[in-house]
Automatic annotation (TrEMBL):
Its EC number is 2.7.7.13, 5.4.2.10. Belongs to the phosphohexose mutase family. It comes from the Bacteria. One of its GO terms (cellular component) is carboxysome. PANTHER family: SUGAR-1-PHOSPHATE GUANYL TRANSFERASE (PTHR22572). Keywords: Cytoplasm, Initiation factor, Isomerase, Nucleotidyltransferase, Phosphoprotein, Protein biosynthesis, Repeat, Transferase. Pfam families: LbH_EIF2B, NTP_transferase, PGM_PMM_I, PGM_PMM_II, PGM_PMM_III. The keyword Zinc does not apply. Residues 251-352 form the EIF2B subunit epsilon/gamma LbH domain. It comes from Fischerella thermalis JSC-11. This is Mannose-1-phosphate guanylyltransferase., Phosphoglucosamine mutase. GO terms for molecular function: mannose-1-phosphate guanylyltransferase (GTP) activity; phosphoglucosamine mutase activity; structural constituent of carboxysome shell.
């Protein structure tokens, strides 16, 4: 017996799921609806299938091929020009149907006993048997009424409430004799329910209704789609699960890793090759496709997640549908009945409200709240470069193919034959990205000086000495262990200018890359004695004898990074007593929690050894946190003030460069030493440029970025900072605790407020217009100063996120608290007004 699988439907009511997929290919339990139908046919001995196709026919054809992998033989019939309707497309293949055949819909889920229905058809000697079922609310279906002998005497397609005369409905499955097709005209659109069956009824042909027991769900709309999944998980319908049942109600595919701390409550389906992170909570009713990654602390309450999706850390999904290849970033919320189309991106902390539908390939900005369907338009990528180089999720945003193209774009802005240094941290992900960048650079005729795994201060030191055109450094982001940061440096070792960034972006987006001939392809060299060059430059700026005679004992925690490979030897050479912790290389990135644990341990070791101080080095040799002799950490504004005080004590009348938001303790210290303070924009490049260009700069940077010693190189350097600290504490005969005790007592607090990109410019203009010009500083953001003292408040838009940072600074704690409260309310009120205005305009 043959079956005709009706698989031509476009599934308009299932959009956006069916925007790029025909309805029969929409997955239930990670397998297409059509596959479940074929499994049903196979269970009842029907292995010859003719599939009628119309909408996106290749999707189904490519999946099933000839059907041999599924245990059946499939023939295809495609309605090329116009849809012929349910009956017309079967009439179109009448030559293949020379005996009793079954017609079944490819977009419903059922476990009906087809063998019993076929037996019924034969017993009744029926020309057409409709498989019927009882439903509580038949308004959406074709209602059928039969007499006491099960012969059909009346039916009505999709009745109104007043017309309902039965709860027995047409399921779209029929057993037919070939001769009934003779009643249909050829190549004409016709429908079984509207055209053929009324005609058979009028002609008095024997037509029966078989009321089937079992489950049936017409997956006609999005609510029904989710319900069918839940019913399948609860085993209300007999379907073949594609995975092994690892424990009662938990089906898990092959090669899937689930962190031991994840909590999974049955029933749940998790596909092949998935990665479930730490402390993930998966609640009953959740369906997770193949190759899905779920970040730590995510919470999944009955979502349906399709193949290849990426769910970020702390994301919240509630009874929604996340389509193929979609990315839901960290802390985003997708709420009940929302549907996100394939290949879309939901930004960090964005929220998609209940019932909202997002069409494929859309981008929801970070922090956005989406209350309406997103159908037209697309959010384009704003920039490649952020506040600090190119950054993105490792192996998701920053992939090998992306890095190859980025390397080629950068190389295309340089002269052919130029030389560039490439360096990285010790992580495997950084090695992968670096090699891809190198391939892109070589393809446009750039020669590579490969410094391999190297601390970034070493790379910055050797760049001007090697006479190269610039450099690239790749590392795991200092603040985000799941992010990669790619920094580009100029010939002086400073991060490249905005103008150079724009050139690279232009080449990247316009795909304006040159292609070198074979003999022009770049070369790769591995320079030796790179660390020695750094050591030589390092020594020249220190009083080596002071270090040798200091008898200082320092405990240094390298947090398993590459900076541990250089500094211990140097300090040993200088005769300093350095106790080294965690100096071996670890290829996995440390989380913030792990670093805090190591910092506490460092404090205990410093105390136990009665060391002068301890240091935790991070950010690949750029940043540090100090621990005083009592084991108490010194970080943030306290660390910035301490370094400024020590450097200006060593170099009175010197100049220090700090970011705009640093505490006014810096100015108070500078006044004590007749020094000068230069404030810059709150980004690393601005700090480097100001430290390099201004005369007599003895220190640049802050605890957030690290500290710059421009005489050595123009970047941040925690390693030199440690040696300089030993030297200064020895010469000044001070301890960290005594230096800290002498620092000015300044109250400095901050707060972060969410602010859409579209409102940032208007907010800044509003603040400028509503404050006297003489009280404003506009270095970066809007700083409102109190005249005659060091009190100020700064409103600073974030460069890469839809956020605004508020900083309040004063010697008066009450003033800081009141001002922060006041400006928080002002900014929030302004943002709310702007959003209301946008909604009103829409």
């Amino acid at each position: 017996m043959r079956a005709v699988l009706m698989a031509g439907g476009s599934g308009t009511r299932l959009r956006p799921l069916t925007c790029d997929l025909p309805k029969p290919m929409v997955p239930i339990l990670n397998r297409p609806i059509a596959e479940h139908i074929i499994n049903l046919l196979k269970r009842h001995g029907i292995t010859e299938v003719v599939a009628t196709l119309h909408y996106l026919p290749d999707a189904l054809r490519d999946y099933f091929q000839d059907g041999s992998d599924f245990g059946v033989q499939i023939t295809y019939s495609v309605e090329e020009d116009q849809p012929l309707g349910t009956a017309g497309c079967v009439k179109n293949i009448a030559e293949l149907l020379d005996e009793t055949f079954l017609v079944i819909s490819g977009d419903s889920i059922t476990d009906f006993d087809l063998t019993a229905a076929i037996e019924f058809h034969k017993q009744k000697k029926s020309k057409a048997t409709l498989i019927l079922t009882r439903v509580p609310n038949p308004i959406e279906f074709g209602v059928v009424i039969t007499d006491e002998n099960d012969r059909i005497c009346r039916f009505l397609e999709k009745p109104s409430t007043s017309e309902i005369f039965s709860d027995t409905v047409n399921t779209g499955a029929y057993i037919l004799e070939p001769e009934v097709l003779e009643y249909l005209p050829a190549n004409t659109e016709s429908d079984f329910s509207k055209d053929l069956f009324p005609l058979l009824l009028a002609k008095g042909e024997p037509m029966y209704g078989y009321i089937a027991k079992g489950y049936w769900c017409d997956v006609g709309h999005l609510d029904a789609y989710r319900e069918a999944q839940y019913h399948a998980l609860e085993r209300k319908v007999k379907l073949d699960f594609p995975y092994k049942e690892e424990s009662p109600g938990v089906w898990i595919g092959q090669n899937t890793y689930i962190d031991p701390t994840a909590k999974i409550e049955p029933p749940v389906v998790i596909g092949d090759n998935c990665r479930i992170g730490a402390r993930v909570h998966i609640e009953p009713g959740t369906v997770i496709g193949d190759k899905v990654t779920i970040g730590a602390d995510a919470n999944l309450k009955r979502p349906i997640v399709w193949n290849g999706a990426i769910i970020g850390e702390e994301a919240q999904l509630s009874a929604c549908v996340i389509s193929r290849g979609t990315r839901v970033d960290r802390r985003a919320h997708v709420l009940e009945a929302a549907v996100v189309g394939s290949l879309s991106t939901v930004g960090e902390e964005a929220q998609i409200s209940p019932g909202v539908r997002v069409w494929p390939s859309k981008k929801i900005d970070s922090g956005a709240i989406l209350n309406i369907n997103l159908i037209w338009g697309n959010t384009a990528q704003r920039n490649l470069f952020g506040q600090r180089g190119v950054q993105g999720l490792a192996n998701i945003d920053i992939t090998p193919e992306f890095a190859v193209k980025l390397g080629a774009a950068y190389g295309s802005t340089l002269k052919p034959g130029s030389r560039v240094t490439v360096s990285r941290d010790q992580r495997n992900i950084s090695r992968m990205v670096t090699r891809s960048l190198i391939a892109g650079l070589m393809s446009v005729g750039i020669n590579i000086q490969n410094l391999d795994a190297t601390a970034i201060p070493i790379a910055r030191t050797v760049i001007p000495r090697m006479g190269v055109a610039g450099g690239i450094h790749v590392r795991v982001h200092p603040d985000r262990p799941d992010y990669i940061l790619i920094e580009f440096m100029d010939a002086k070792g400073i991060n490249i200018s905005k103008a150079q960034e724009k050139k690279i972006e232009g080449a990247y987006f316009k795909e304006d890359m040159r292609r070198s001939l074979i003999h022009e392809i770049g070369d790769v060299a591995y320079p030796s004695q790179v660390a020695d060059e750094y050591c030589t430059a390092f020594e020249k700026l220190l009083h080596i004898d002071t270090l040798r005679n200091s008898r200082a004992k320092v405990v240094i925690d390298y947090v398993y990074a590459v900076s541990g490979a250089v500094l211990p030897q140097m300090l040993d050479k200088f005769g300093a007593d350095a106790v080294v912790l965690n100096a071996s290389l670890n290829k996995t990135a440390m989380s913030a929690t792990d670093r805090e644990t190591l910092l506490t341990q460092l404090g205990h070791v410093v105390e136990a050894l009665k060391a002068n101080f301890g240091v935790q080095v991070s950010a690949n040799g750029e940043q540090l946190i100090l621990v005083d002799e009592s084991g108490i950490p010194i970080r943030g504004e306290m660390l910035t003030a301490l370094m400024v005080d020590m450097m200006l004590t060593s170099c009175p009348r010197g100049t220090v460069v700090v970011p705009v938001h640093a505490s006014s303790a810096v100015e108070q210290i500078a006044r004590r030493h007749d020094g000068k303070v230069i404030r810059t924009k709150a980004n690393p490049t601005a700090l480097m440029e100001a430290s390099y260009k201004n005369a007599n700069v003895v220190l640049g940077g802050s605890a957030d970025t690290g500290f710059i010693f421009p005489q050595l190189h123009p970047g941040f350097d925690a390693m030199f900072c440690i040696a300089k600290l030993i030297e200064m504490l020895t010469i000044q005969e001070r301890s960290l605790a005594s230096v800290r005790a002498e620092l000015p007592r300044v109250i400095h607090k901050s707060h972060v407020i969410r602010c859409p990109w579209t409102a940032k410019g208007a907010l800044m203009r509003h603040l400028v217009e509503t404050h006297p010009a003489q009280n404003l500083e506009l270095i970066d953001g809007v700083k409102i100063c109190q005249q005659y003292d060091d009190s100020w408040v700064l409103v600073l838009p974030d460069a890469s996120e839809p956020l605004v940072h508020l900083y309040a600074n004063s010697n008066d704690r009450d003033w800081v608290d009141e001002t922060l409260r006041n400006y928080r309310a002002r900014v929030q009120a302004f943002v709310e007004r702007e959003q209301e205005q946008v909604v009103a305009e829409v």
